[in-house]
């Protein structure tokens, strides 16, 4: 055991290429958690906050860029449809707003964080005040070009987000890039049962259209 608190802790993830740094989160309704994301050294020392939430702000779905350079997460505010992608530098401790985005439930990046992929979603269920966070349902997968601050629709996921066999996760798209960045893997129950699908990306990024 490296860290213990009498609250709901979750989502532990080692920083890639750094066996001494672990990210974790304070779980619970997103609109009631005042600081979701934390880091701790592998020996349990130096517990530090990634970001204190602003009033009305929720943060979610943090992940390490696979090359270990940054922690990416999403911020959204009560009463707003869109969201903002943030990058946290674990060396400097700086949080940087990268770009705005449609409401996506899950993000993931390619190896160096130059491209991100997300799954359009609807009103979040992990908030207490669901009326204050009402979002139109979005059935699309998106690719985000971080340097150009642009995003593109790739394909429809059309998942139902239904709970299957007591699991909420099996119908969540959770998109990710193939190792060569040529396609997107995602889950969906659009054909009746949860399955894994692949959406190929065009050979030239300029062929993507908004």
How would you portray this structure in words?
- Helix content is 0%, strand content 43%.
- It is built from no helices and 15 strands.
- The strands form 4 sheets. A 4-stranded antiparallel beta sheet has the order 1-2-3-4, with no helix packed on it.
- The mean pLDDT is 90.
- It has a single domain (9-162), classed as YVTN repeat-like/Quinoprotein amine dehydrogenase (Methylamine Dehydrogenase, Chain H, 7 Propeller).
- Strand 13 and strand 14 form a beta hairpin.
- The chain is mostly beta strands and 210 residues long.
- The termini are far apart.
- One of its GO terms (biological process) is pectin catabolic process.
- InterPro entries: Ogl_dom, WD40/YVTN_repeat-like_dom_sf.
- GO terms for molecular function: oligogalacturonide lyase activity.
Largest sheet: 4 strands, antiparallel
Q: How much strand?
A: 35-45%
What is the CATH architecture annotation?
7 Propeller
Shape: globular
Instruction: Indicate the structural class.
Output: mainly beta
Mean pLDDT: 90
CATH H level, superfamily name: YVTN repeat-like/Quinoprotein amine dehydrogenase
**Which fold name fills CATH's third level, the topology?**
Methylamine Dehydrogenase, Chain H
Strand order within the widest beta sheet:
1-2-3-4
Query: How large, in whole angstroms, is the Cα Rg?
Result: 17 Å
Structure annotation, total helices: 0
H/E element sequence: EEEEEEEEEEEEEEE
Measure the end-to-end span: 46 Å
Low-confidence stretches: none
Total discrete domains = 1
For the record, the CATH class is Mainly Beta
Pfam family, one: Pectate_lyase22
Organism: Klebsiella pneumoniae
GO molecular function: oligogalacturonide lyase activity
Protein name: Oligogalacturonate lyase
